[in-house]
Amino acid sequence: MTAKIFRHKEHKAHKACPAAGQGKPLCSLCALWCSFGCGQSRVTKRVFNYPVFFLLITQTVLAQNKPDEIYQRGWLAPDSLYKVAPEFLPLPGAYQPQESAVQLLRCYNEPVTVLIFFGSWCSDSKREVPRFFTTLDLIHNKSISAKLFGLDRIKKDTAGFAEAFKIEKVPTFIFLRGARDFSAAAHSAREHTQGELGRITETPSISIEQDWVNALKQNVDWARKVEFEQMLMQLGFAIAFFIMK
User: Fold this and answer.
1) Are 55 and 143 members of one domain?
2) Are residues 169 and 213 part of one domain?
3) What is the SS3 assignment for 150?
4) Cα–Cα distance between 49 and 3 in angstroms, integer?
């Protein structure tokens, strides 16, 4: 079904808009105003018939910075983040990663950089970022490093990293092949997007550690190695059971 274009009607609520009375499409703010302020207008009924339209307006309103919020923007070391936002500090025992996933992450032996776009204002970031660093501390794998990049509600930055990586939601964990130096002037933000293995957006589908493993399995060589080792382990258990029997 093709959605109809809402057009201005002749009444007071629209006089503030340049398109008033000219038969032009409604601007988003006028449409929102009509839906709540113009109970007599037929526009109200039309707008309420289009939930997707309302969703778009709601997202636009929510993606605005708030004057009473403090935003951590740009590159941050974990210790620096913990000082300005203690709620991100991983607490001992607060999260227990799955042991099987931890063991797999420990044996990953190729350099990987995890680029984490987060919001210091975001409840999902406050939950998932500490879980990620809890897991990172447990695996003790020097091949895996993490970089934090803070965004405000608008999710844009002057260096263009959020745009280059197409960030729409936070947190977003992006798993990149190789050790990365994002401060190097020789490389643009868009060049750093090469070599992505996978990402976790906003909320893991299983858990932060298992989704992490699944992203690294896009490295086919490592995935085959893991599969072979698991097959050998199962074969060993089968042989041991047969001998004991």
Assistant:
1) no
2) yes
3) strand
4) 10
Question: b or e along 134-144 (b: 16 or more beta carbons within 10 Å of the residue's beta carbon)?
Answer: bbbebbeeeeb
User: Can you say whether residue 120 is alpha, beta or left, with left for phi > 0 and alpha for psi between -120 and 50 degrees?
Assistant: alpha
The alpha carbon of residue 123 and the mean position of all alpha carbons in its chain are separated, in whole angstroms, by: 12
Residue 91 resides in a domain: yes
Q: Is the peptide bond before 25 cis (omega within 30 degrees of 0)?
A: no
φ, ψ for residue 47 (rounded to 5)?
-60, -45
**Taking Cα atoms as reference points, which of 86, 160, 83, 147 lies closest to residue 118?**
147
Based on the domain organization, do 158 and 100 belong to the same domain?
yes
78, 58: one domain: no
Token code pair at residue 20:
């008033």
Phi then psi for residue 143, to 5 deg, are -75, -15
Mean pLDDT over 53-64 rounds to 56
Helices (H) and strands (E) in the chain, counts: 9, 5
Could you tell me which residue, 63 or 6, shows the higher pLDDT? 63
Position 141, amino acid: N
* pTM confidence score: 0.72
* 119 Cα distance to chain centroid: 9
Instruction: Report d(CA 216, CA 112) in Å as an integer.
Output: 9
- CB of 80 within 8 A of CB of 71? no
In a domain, 49, yes or no: yes
**Average pLDDT of every residue of the chain:** 81
Strand 172-177 with 112-118, pairing: antiparallel
Residue numbers of the domain that contains 189: 74-228
